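Chain X:
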Amino acid sequence: MLSLKLAARNIRKDMKSFGPFLIACLTMFVMLFVAASIAFSPSVAKLPFAGAVVGQLMILALVVLAIFGAMILIYSYRFLQLQRSREFGLYDILGFGKEKIALVSFYELLMIYLITLVFGSVIGVAFSKFSFLIFVNIIGGKTFNLVINPVSYLVVAAIFLVFFLLLLIIGCFIIWKSSSLDLLRESSKGEKEPKSNIIFALLGIVLLAVGYYMAVSVENPVKALSQFFIAVILVIFGTYFFYVSFTVWYLKRKKKRASYHQPNNFITTSSMLYRMKANAVGLANITILLSMAIVTMVVTVGIFFGTERSLAKQYPMEGQAVAYNMSKEALANKIDSVSNEKQIPIEDLKVIETQSNLIVGTQTKDKTLAVEKWNANANQINFSIVSRDDLVKLGNSVPELTNQQLLVYTISGKEAAFNQLDWYGKNYQVDRLKTLKNYPLQSTFMDTILIVSNDDKTMKEMSQAYNETIDGSKLLQTIALFEIAPTKADTFGQALTKNTSDLSMYSRTEVLKSAKSVIAGFVFIGFILGISFILGAALIIYYKQLSEGSQDKRSFKILQEVGLSKTEVQKTIKSQVRMLFFLPIVVSIIHFGFAYIMISKIIEAFGITDTVLVAWVSVGTILIIAILYYLIYKLTSRVYYKIVER
């Protein structure tokens, strides 16, 4: 009973120590509850097109957040234990015994667990409904009411029970292995000067260099997806080694400069050097969290905003019918017939013939691109072919061509580096098509080159040459583009494709809605994870300010007593805080700069090749996160100043 009373009194009287840990618990509980409430809600199944996919994605987000939450809670609880080690030491000296001290810790964790469940659930329900409202608006849905499944409470409560059992084990282990004297000294003892391990410093540089090289050298979206996680792991370990070893080496180099003996430089450099071992891990954590927030937000926001632009290129008009084994005239007649029969008007009908997704092996020599039979070891390019007349029909300005001439247009916007094309033994002179409009570009994981032939005959000859190298054949596509009222597109499509297996009808509006319902799931997860990473960084920054303030308070008090003015103390504090503030955000931006090519390729894997859009999304995201980071640091730095200044 005494242990229970002590635990309740400790939480009530020492909220200064327990407050930050309780905030961390509530923050992670709410983030996990949002993911769980949406993942298990029956409301998600009512969402248009992809409710099941969204639920599965949120379960994945729940797993990621659970791992991340465990790290944050262990970090914050370790800080709480450090702050209260003197109290535990006094308990032990007074004969309370380590068993009862551990029992007090158990009751404290139990009470905080119950407080977290109650208040976290209330806040979580409100935040879940608000987040779901945002999500439904993104996908254009009409189901705004989020029904909270009781399973959500049970899942998050179980996850947190595991967290708190882990914290109890960690706390009991620290109490059990420490003597009374160790506990008394734990919160006030200074750190030894860390050693700058040249091997770790070099290892950090090598890991970062390899990770950066993998990121900048990636050539296609498929490779980017497979290499991304390897590069991330290398950069994470490289970041830790960089902070732990390289920063210590740099600070020791500063000690050898003449400017080191100036009061401000001497105090700042010495203080940071003696605490850099602990600082390094915290700074590395902040850097990694900021980097993860930037990458997550850029990828998800880039995919979301790029989807509409990409689909506008794939579907230049509202209606699009695709047929195989059907001539252009036959398809046009069928569309006109259905339009007249159903009294559904269509406008601006254009019918073309094209061949898409011709994946070939290539070799380049003397500005001649030689196409060969595809094999796994060859360089691969994806070609599409269309005739000049059909492009002109779509409103493009295309020069006259001979039988031996072709025009090429690279979908990604890169300049084709060849002047001749050897297409399975037949040589063509190649020129560039400067602009392209109204052509239905198909989404693909590979960069695509559009070939413009002089007429339909040449196009079919090139297609036949390709078909002879593969099993089966690629059928020519006959594509009809036309404008139709979006509300009539479904009725028209059903009538058009009735009793026909090789004819399909697409509505740009419906395709966009379907795509957004899936993409919005990624965006929402990016939103939740991004907020979690930023909040995690904020919590670590706050704990750093508390711990550093407590450690520096005594040092600055002594310096003032021996003659250092308050103005000089404030100037020194600001110099140190500025360095600790700028380093993580600068390193995060450097990480992202090297990862930019790989990230743009990952976005390209979703069919988005708008490089200008990706660049603007990247700049905007970095700017927003940098501003949030600055505001967090300004708020938390006040805690440091209040502790340190006398």
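Chain Y:
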Amino acid sequence: MESYTLTDEKRRKILSKLKYHQIQTLSDFTMYEVKSEMITNNFIAASDWHLVDIQEDPFWKLRYTDNTPGKYVPKLKCYCGKTLRYQYVLESRNGKQLYLGKEHFMQHAGIPQKIANQIHERVNSIMIFRDEILVKYDRGERFPLKEYRILDRSGMIFEFGEDFRYKLRRFRDANLPLFHVDENRLMSKYCQIREVNHVLYRILNKEKVEDNHFLFRKTLEEYIDSIEVENFEDTTRWFETISSDCRFVEETTENILNNSTSMTRKILEKDYIKPVNTRLINLSAYIYFEDKFIHILDKIKKDIYGKSEVDILLKKEEEKIVELNALQVQIYGKDAIQDYRDVKENRSVKEIVKNISKIERKKDKCKKIQHKYMHLVRTYTKFHPVLINNLNRVSNREVTSSNSIEDKYINELNKYSSLPKLNGEEEKVVKYFMLKHKVDIPGKGMKQGYSLSAVSIEGFKKVENKDIQKLLLEYLILRVALVEEIIHFRNEELQDKYRKVRNIIFRDGKYNSSRAMESYSIELLISLLIDNKYSKYANITLNKKIELLKQKLDEIIKESGKRKIVEYILNSLISSYHEKLSFNNDISNIVDSIMREEKEFSHNIASLSQWKRDFIDFLYELNYYYCGNKLSEDVKKVDIKVLNVNLVFLRFLNTKVRPILRKN
């Protein structure tokens, strides 16, 4: 090992470069080592005196430090008055204490010179600890702050004891390099987490998340440096999925920008990129990071997925038109055009003309957007005629507002806020029927073509004209009624789809709740069904229902002669059930997925032999007994996890069972 022994002159030269707190930290921990070695081992226990303390003057013969700009006054002295670097405190059997330097052990306390030399040699040998740190500091080494922070953020720092953590904190604050033993201890733990981190960095680099527009890579790198080793497997799976999604978002945004005008670029920058980057910068890597990151990512995916430049500009124009429609009613109170010389308006002629001109310029664009809405509504009429008829009925009826306008507006706004959110197309359908709605403008009769959005109660109160307040309330009542109609239709449609899904799981009524088995774990259930005399469940008495299911499996094995294949599929089914599911909480998507899986599978088994079809039927029955019978009849009460597990089962049939049975 490299020698770090320093001469007194060289030691003082390096110490003179250190700050006061650095010297004090070095002295505190060096003397801690000295005292642990000398006092704990009680070197002179055989004498009439014993060593009770060793003191050091860390600034001995140092003329200048940041806290002592002038000549330094020594703090430690020998019994004889000589200034000391090290002061040895001895105590006699009767409690008398002596404060001595090395030379006076024997003279004042009767300690043999050999013992005095031995003590001082031990102190000098421990000083190698200090010399090593000073040499490292002199050649530019400092505290390994990066490695310490990674251990601290990941929580692995707490695998060290409190004493060592305290020592690390002190050396960190003083920015001093560590003694090689302490450094090796720190780096050994650091290497453990770096091994994990390298795996995640490889995933990140594989997906080539360039981070041209969003701070995805920087945020994920910060998260990598703060993960806990025990959650490594879960984090790796999450990372593989999320890195791919981040790359997709980057590529999509890049494609839009490459084919965009300067106007679209500004919209993307302002409405999408900057807000997302702000949220990512402020995202903590410690608490609920994964959920919050996914939420941010999903928002930006929704904003840019399938978007073209035209989509982005139209969306912006829609927002402007809604604002302008609301503005024209609030400014003029009656119609889109009002005599700009009306002095009752507390506005300049120039401002009114400018607003009128702005509205006029938007008319053509408004028509284009309305045509787009018309196309959407025609599509809805084709596939959902009942819904469109109901929305027409709602839009055509007269909306009666309350005399207590403000109270009614607050109630309707609360109702609107509590309603489930609509998707993009549904929002456009609502907008269309609001534009289609006719309102009674005082002095002008029935007018059509306004589309006033629900605003905050603060915005509502700023409108002084009661007629305008009444209009805002009527449109809010209309919006609530339209949204409620769509939600009601969506729920009925979902319930109908869910009924079909239950028939898929129940095999069109072949299984029902009256045939449900007792609750078993899937491992136990399959172990009871497979005839294995060496199984730990071999001595369990089967109830009648399991016995019947077991007989069916035995017949399939006997008929096919494919025991190994059957057992392999059953054991694979166990693994599929136990895979960590990224549960989708959108019941509609789960239901659609189940219907697609069943449809795809049902068209691919007609050519299979009889025993294979019997085996598939057996698997359906097994799945029904394990989890399918737990499905509620009402979609509102359905257990999302149970629905997802049934989806896993159907995908297992498609991805695992079908290929195996076709091959064998």
